[in-house]
Amino acid sequence: MRRENSDTTQLTINAMLAALCAVLGYVSLEMGNFKLTFESVPVLMAALMYGPVSGALVGGVGTFIYQILRYGITVTTPLWIMPYVMAGFTVGLYAKKHNFSSTNKQLMLIIICAQLLIFVVNTVSLTIDSLVYGYYSTAFIFGTLGLRFIVAIGKGIAFAAVLPVILKKFSRLTRIYC
Q1: DSSP state of 36
Q2: Rounded CA separation 21/38 (Å)
Q3: What 3-state DSSP class applies to 156?
Q4: Hey, is 143 helix, strand or coil?
Q5: Closest CA to 21 of 47, 41, 50, 51
Q6: Between 2 and 172, residue with greater pLDDT
Q7: What is the bridge-based pairing of β-strands 34-36 and 29-31?
């Protein structure tokens, strides 16, 4: 009986994190091909708490909802969902391999790597999307590459600094209320 309750709790938390992912994606700061968003935070939380499947599901469902609300369904919609699925899965694998207990240095490294993975896959997605829909230009795709790279590193550092505190408090809340 306890196992079912645990599965239900995990499913509920994953659903809440997916919804948070969608909201954080929707309220992002967007300027042309530069987008500042915090939608990867709930994806990272799910991955670090429950592993690769939860990380990938939260990333997939959350960004799918956001994409539908913001842009509708297009041929390239899966391309824009893929970075968060891949990041959630990768971070979840890492967390699971380390028994969901990492040092702050390890956490910083995996979160920065996840942000760089999102950066690279988003750049590929932007390139393919621009070719499919006919708005490709080298300046548009690669003009903000340096800035986007620096922001990815900065977000990785910032997220790694705050996530241990958030996860600790979130874990305590789930033990109390679930």
Answers
A1: E
A2: 8
A3: helix
A4: coil
A5: 41
A6: 172
A7: antiparallel
Of the candidates 17, 11, 13, 30, the one whose C-alpha atom is nearest the C-alpha of residue 80 is 30
Angle, CA 52 vertex, CA 49 and CA 54 arms, to 5°: 60
Residue with tokens 């702050």: 104
| Cα-Cα-Cα-Cα dihedral sign, residues 54, 59, 60, 64 | positive
pLDDT at 3 over 50: no
Instruction: Report how far residue 112's alpha carbon sits from residue 108's, in angstroms, rounded to the nearest whole number.
Output: 6
C-alpha 21/C-alpha 37 separation (Å) is 10
Identify which of 13, 136, 142, 22 has the alpha carbon closest to the alpha carbon of residue 80.
22
Burial tier of 118 (Cβ tally within 10 Å: 0-12, 13-18, 19+): buried
- List pLDDT tens digits, range 140-157: 888 989 999 999 999 999
Place of tokens 């699925």: 85
Please give the single-letter amino acid code of residue 27. V
Query: Rounded to an integer, what distance in angstroms lies between the CA atom of residue 158 and that of residue 166?
Result: 12
**Beta-strand runs (E) in 85-173:** none
Instruction: Say if CB 96 and CB 46 are below 8 A apart.
Output: no
pLDDT at position 2 is 33
Least confidently predicted of 21-35, 40-54, 87-101, 120-134: 21-35
Tell me the residue type at 63.
T
